[in-house]
Specification:
2 domains, four-stranded antiparallel beta sheet, 170 residues, 16% helix, alpha+beta, 2 helices, Substrate Binding Domain Of DNAk, Chain A, domain 1
């Protein structure tokens, strides 16, 4: 006989009944709902003015349900910047070198902008692992689409899929 943490006895019969009830509930469309989530944090590399180094700001945290749209505002690091370069990364670290670079979105800025001028950043991530990054600053827009696929060539995927048919489970 098993005992649960609150010292309540569990009978095998009751456990089977509960298990069957859960299974029928699942078949009925009840209890279980499957949701796609992000497997890694998707971030942006920013400049820390106080500590004088780059760090990763998490835009879409790991385990976020997808599709997801996240918007945030930042400021230009210096006055009179000619352009803002947005570095998109994936990973759990706040250290850019420990994260995987995914892409860059570059936006032209008008002259004479003061330090701290607003830069709006939007990350839109869908279930097909496509990340769209949009940057808006001083009336200018820039957009980049990052397709986060498996990294396998079509022939590699086909070869792997054909090998699955040869598997035997006993």
């Amino acid at each position: 006989m098993l005992s649960i943490l609150n010292d309540e006895d569990i009978s095998g019969e009751r456990t089977v009944d509960d298990s069957v009830r859960r299974q029928f509930s699942v078949l009925d469309g009840g209890l279980i709902e499957v949701t796609d989530i992000t497997s890694h944090t998707l971030g942006v590399v920013l400049w820390d003015e106080r500590q004088l180094h780059e760090y990763v700001f998490p835009m879409i945290p790991k385990m976020t349900p997808i599709p997801a749209v996240i918007k945030n505002s930042f400021g230009t690091a210096d006055a009179n910047m000619q352009r803002a370069v947005v570095k998109v990364v994936e990973g759990e670290s706040t250290v850019p070198g420990e994260c995987t670079p995914l892409g860059v979105c570059d936006i032209q800025l008008p002259p004479y902008l003061p330090k701290g001028s607003p830069v709006k950043l939007t990350y839109q991530y869908n279930a097909n692992q496509v990340l769209e990054v949009e940057v808006q600053a001083a009336g200018n827009n820039a957009k980049v689409t990052i397709d986060r696929n498996t990294g396998l060539a079509p022939q590699e995927i086909e070869k792997a899929a054909s090998g699955l048919g040869e598997l035997q489970v006993s």
